[in-house]
Structure formats: structure tokens, C-alpha cells
# Entry
Amino acid sequence: MGLTVTVSVPATTANLGPGFDCLGAALSLGNQFKFSPLPSGSENLRIRVSGLEAKRVKTDASNLVYQAFLKLYDRLNQIPPAVQIEIQLGVPLARGLGSSATAIVGGLVGANALADSPLTQDELMRMAIAIEGHPDNVVPALLGGCQLAATGTDTDWEICPIPWHESLIPIVAIPNFELPTQTARQVLPSSYSRADAIFNTAHLGLLLRGLETGKGNWLRAALQDRIHQPYRQTLIPDYETVQIAATAAGAYGLVISGAGPTLLALTDNNTAEAVMAAIATVWKPSDLSVQVKKVGIDRQGAIVEINA
# Structure
């Protein structure tokens, strides 16, 4: 049967307010992907899915994990092996927590390991960005931690790890409805004013220092945004009410995680429980159900286990 490769990939939260399409952090939730070569003469592909919303994941060749798997072998100019992929889901689908990024990273890393790791982590990262179309989720999913991505002078990517102060606690509020990324992008304007560009530039700079130092006043100001949140918040019921309640309970701020609808609050140990309760209380009377979790920052990224 050959080697069996298991890849664990963390969920991610992207943007963090003003860091639209360039900033993201890995979270202590995740998906697991197990790749096992199939015997010669059997089918080319077998996909089994378990865990959250397993029935909604495609199990044919259009599966995103398998598509990324194929792209790796195409890059190597090799015929992909017949493979069984077992997917254990721990990240909700289409909720702004990087589920597609875990699939892309899992497929690339798994294929690379089965092929005896010919590509470097840097090469895998660039492939993942090309597949996803932007770096904010796939980079922290692969590398872990909080990561800032920018194009270099030759249009290649420069990746900068952002220190995350140990006192900062992420809280995610995951409602029971989906918000496809395409829908969330369609509400964005095609251009912005100079004032809004300057506003976000200043607040992203302040956010990076706030994340590094844990300084509350900096974070309260820095988590503001004028590029995507004012437009996307209209797609999330009671967004403003939840934001007011979270900050009143002690959160430094509340932002949309990725494209949404999951919301992310940043707080500390002293106020975390109060913030969680405040968010849950706002959404409780509505038709929405919400899962509010205190999570951590995953600092390892994608982890590979190889068994002979």
C-alpha cells in the first residue's frame, strides 16, 4: 500500500479589520486529511468525509482537496497516484474560518509528502496563494501564527510573521448560516476615496503594533476598517448590536472573520467570559443560533505525519 500521509491544517481568521486580503491568523480549530495510496487496479479516487457538515462535501474529482492534490502532481509533471482521501472536518463550511484554505493546503501538502517532498514550504505556499487567489487564509493555514503578506518588488510574495501578544484571546461567534465569499465580495465598491485608503493604512499599522504589544487603546482604535466591513456588515443580522454588546463587555473590538458571517472579538482573560456571554445574549432572541468559542492562536500551521 505504501506510505500513508496525514495532514492537520488549522482554521484561519482573515483581515482582522483593516488587513483586508493581506493579514490572517491561524486558530486552534482545524481539519485533518489522510492520504492513502489505493491498490493498483482499483478506482483512481475514493473520498470519505466525517465530522461537521460531512454530507455537504463533494466526494468526486471536483473535491477541492483532490483538485489541489492534482495541481501538485501537474507541477511535478507526474501522473497522480490512485488515492483514498479521508477528511475529518472540524471547521464549519462557508463561515469565514478558512475551510477552503485548509482544503487547498491539505491537498498540496499531502500530495507533496506522497511524492517524497520535492517542493519546499515556500513553493507550496506560492501554489496555495495562486489557487486561492489571495494570501490571507492560506499563508497562516500553512505556516501558523499571524502572517502579513505583501508583493515584493518582483511581484513575488514577501511574508512577514506578526507577533501575537500572549494576553490577546480570540473569540469566534459562528452563526448557523452561510455567507459565500463571492456574495461577500459582490457588495464591495470598485473604488475607494483617498481618505478611506489613508484611514486603513494608518489603522493597519496601528493594528500590527497592537497585536505585538497587547496595548488595549491601540487595538480599540486599530480594529476599525473602511474597506470591507461597512459593506459586509449589512449581510450579517444584528451586526452593530453584537459589536456594541461585545465592546461594552470589555472586548477591544469586534470584526468580521474573513468574508463572514463568523465574527471575531479580541479580548483578554479578564473579560473573555463576559464578552462571550454578551454576544450569545444578543443573538439568542433571534432566529439565529450561534456557537461562541474562546480559541487560541495556532503557531504550528500544517502538520504532516507519515506512516509506512
User: Anything to note?
Assistant: The chain has two domains: 4-162+297-307, 169-294. The chain has ten helices and eleven strands. The two ends are 9 Å apart (CA to CA). The longest helix spans residues 194-213.
